[in-house]
Specification:
- The protein is α/β, with parallel strands linked by helices.
- The protein folds into two domains: 5-73 and 108-263 and 330-352, TIM Barrel, CATH 3.20.20.70; 77-106 and 266-320, no CATH class.
- It is built from 14 helices and eleven strands.
- The strands form two sheets. The protein has an eight-stranded parallel beta sheet.
- Helix 1 (25-33) packs parallel to helix 2 (47-60), helix 2 (47-60) packs parallel to helix 5 and helix 7 packs across helix 8 (198-206).
- The longest helix is centred in the last third of the chain and has 18 residues, at 335-352.
Length: 366
Amino acid sequence: MPTALTDFCRHPIVQAPMAGGGSGPELAAAVCEAGGLGFLAAGYKTADGMYQEIKQLRGLTGRPFGVNLFMPQPALTDTSAVEVYREQLAGETAWYETELGDVDGPTDDGYEAKVAILRDDPVPLVSFTFGCPSRAVLDGFAEVGTYTVVTVTTAAEAQAAQWSGADAVCVQGVEAGGHQGTHRDDPHADGTGSGLGLLALLAQVRETVQIPVIAAGGLMRGAQIAAVLAAGASMAQLGTAFLATPESGANPLHKQALTNPLFTHTELTRAFSGRPARGLVNRFLREHGPYAPAAYPAVHYLTAPVRKAAAKAGDAQGLNLWAGQGHRLAREMPAGQLVGVLAAELDAARVSLGLGGPGYGPGGAV
């Protein structure tokens, strides 16, 4: 297996692991075959479901790939706020003719079982979201040759990841679509504007840690990739850019909404899951976002039947339309072709910025 981050792929382009169906074997394989680094999202899957997808991906590509795990979350000790939110959602159950979900689902996302499988049958790279694993877990992956990456949203989180033994960090700016990968969910930070943009956060992290950095958040074009590489990142991670590809497992309503003029902007919301996540502003987000409690994954379980019913009804106004701030720049093309276009744009931008020809950037492999 590769021992340096830039050895995993030809281009410094990482396809973000998008849980909930977006990142499956087809998408990851297409990205890997085109010279990028494809990722499977193990979040919301059973341990066996994750393993079956890994087997499928191995049948589609022999190139290195990654698997992303959700860290276990604290158990919900007070359900009163969730029950109040259940009452708030009563109109949704009548509209979509469905019941709300049981909030007593697991809070660990099968973490221990997934770690055990990935230790027994190693993959090239494993990343973590919603926290930092223990040194024992990270050391265990190092023993079997697996490269580890921890998603961070502050310099302090990056420092903790380095201290724990992570090989690299994925720096997630506030522009990123989907869930913010904060290690501690602080409801007091809601609406304060405390989240940092990618370039500001990247600079802070680069001055705090010595391990390689992957930059993520609102990246949609090769010139943006060139910018984060010039700022010190080793690679760039893109999610929303790959969401519109035919290999993506996202709902067609979700794909269409990315460039639909009806959806003008994104916001961070707890409406669908109980954790801050950036999505296109639709009716559900507007009506329920102000009332959603900080209760992940209880709220995720609560709203799951409504989201499923909305999808079945073809109603994008009831879906969690996760998207980064650059969503209007989404391009409908095969994932492999998109990797090629991004790489060509990156090369052109490097030349125009006087950074030389094709390459990874400062200290990276050419």
